[in-house]
Design brief:
421 residues, alpha/beta, Rossmann fold, 2 domains, seven-stranded mixed β-sheet, 14 helices, 12 strands
């Protein structure tokens, strides 16, 4: 799940970026034109407009989306985003990225995504609950444990998933915990789920460091985004011996070349509402350009572009967010010799443990955190090796290799199932 911590700069459409990334892989694969057309289009897209009663008694109208990109390999899976800048094109792109992400780590899901145009920071707890329950009702024609399983994303959390679980269950007349993942543990959530995306980022960074011959325990790290993904990744990287020299949130960042005391930063953030002011101030743009071994963009999409990629000084970029690097920037980083771990691999830890949660809910049999983390480690390491092997075979970058692997798997499933009728 990406972090709601950094405002995205002006950028090209996320959907255009997603299509360009797909087209590159399709061309490399020599994918037939008819298959390209099937995989380029979302299977379903639902647009809803619904009223919500605010605390002051007034009625406000909200717009929301739910997009299923592809379900050839299993039920649709993807988060729900609450953000003022949510658009249908963004949700379509995120749904497509989810399809490839699930295929890269080889779990039996297709891709979906949802979103509501709103600013949850300006809404009360009760307003967010009413909005969530109404939105869940509107998209209930699509979601379900066998069809489409939402999860948290930017602006949503475990409580949001609890409201959706309860709303869906009330409509069915019995409890359906498997309808969403990322729920509180008390109602069927999985241990290790909150840390899963950040843990996956750490594992991906560690494997990349091994491949690059970089001493991971001494590596310097800069992280853009200090929400769930960024903060967890920072803590886990520090436990591995890395030196986290910079972090940022929506108001800016803080930097110390000798490393930050993350426990003290967390206390400062809790007291002041931002990390800005803890140490040397940097902007969210500057944090991407700091001298470091590993850069983790863990905020929103479109942060590293053709305009700033040549100023990135990191040896390794690990995408904690979805779509933080544009195709133009990919080419520049590749030419510079920067090893970039794409989002569909690097931040897949969240959907992997969401899959574990779904399986546990369906079985009504739960695993402990040690089992969760061990299974996550195994899948992430296997996926990293699959992607790097494809990159070596095709003599290409890791994003293209990951897409080739993912598109190949989805295309194979689509061809085997054939076209109905």
């Amino acid at each position: 799940m990406p972090d709601n911590t950094v405002a995205a700069p002006a950028k090209v459409s996320a959907w255009d970026v997603a299509l360009e990334q797909f087209d590159i892989a399709a061309e490399k694969l020599g994918l037939p034109q008819d298959m390209r057309q099937v995989l380029r289009y979302p299977k379903r897209q639902l647009v809803v407009h619904f009223p919500v009663r605010l605390d002051n008694g007034q009625i406000a109208m909200f717009s929301g989306y739910r997009v299923q990109h592809n379900i050839a390999r299993g039920p649709a899976k993807g988060g729900i985003r609450y953000h003022p800048d949510v658009t249908l094109d963004e949700v379509k792109a995120l749904a497509m990225w989810m399809t490839w992400k699930c295929a890269v780590v080889n779990i039996p899901y297709g891709g979906a995504k949802g979103g509501v145009v709103c600013d949850p920071k300006k809404m009360s707890h009760t307003e967010r609950e009413r909005l969530t329950r109404r939105y869940a009702t509107e998209i209930s024609v699509l979601i379900g444990p066998e069809s489409d399983i939402p999860a948290p994303d930017v602006g949503t959390d475990a409580q949001t998933m609890a409201w959706i679980t309860d709303t869906y269950s009330m409509h069915r007349g019995y409890s359906v915990p498997a309808v969403v993942t990322g729920k509180p543990i008390a109602i069927g959530g999985s241990e290790g789920r909150r840390e899963a995306t950040g843990r996956g980022v750490m594992i991906a960074a560690r494997e990349a460091a091994k491949q690059s011959g970089l001493a991971f325990a001494d590596a310097t790290v800069a992280i853009q985004g200090y929400g769930n993904v960024g903060s967890v990744a920072a803590d886990l990287l520090a436990k591995e011996g890395c030196k986290v020299i910079a972090i940022s949130d929506s108001q800016g960042g803080t930097h110390h070349p000798n490393g930050l005391d993350l426990a003290a930063v967390a206390r400062y953030k809790a007291a002041n509402g931002t990390v800005v002011g803890y140490a040397e101030k940097v902007t969210n743009e500057e944090i991407l350009e700091l001298p470091c071994d590993i850069l983790v963009p863990a905020a929103l999409e479109g942060q590293i572009t053709a305009a700033n990629a040549d100023r990135v000084k990191a040896k390794i970029v690990v995408e904690g967010a979805n779509g933080p690097t544009t195709p133009g920037a990919d080419r520049i980083l590749w030419d510079k010799g920067v090893l970039l771990l794409p989002d569909v691999l690097a931040n897949a830890g969240g959907v992997v443990v969401s899959y574990f949660e779904w399986v546990q809910d369906l079985q009504a049999f739960f695993w402990n955190e040690g089992e969760i983390n061990s299974r996550l480690e195994s899948i992430m390491v296997r996926a990293f090796r699959d992607v790097t092997a494809m990159a070596q075979k095709e003599e290409t970058d890791l994003r293209t290799a990951a897409y080739i692997l993912a598109v190949q798997r989805v295309a194979e499933a689509t061809a085997i199932r054939c076209i109905y009728p």
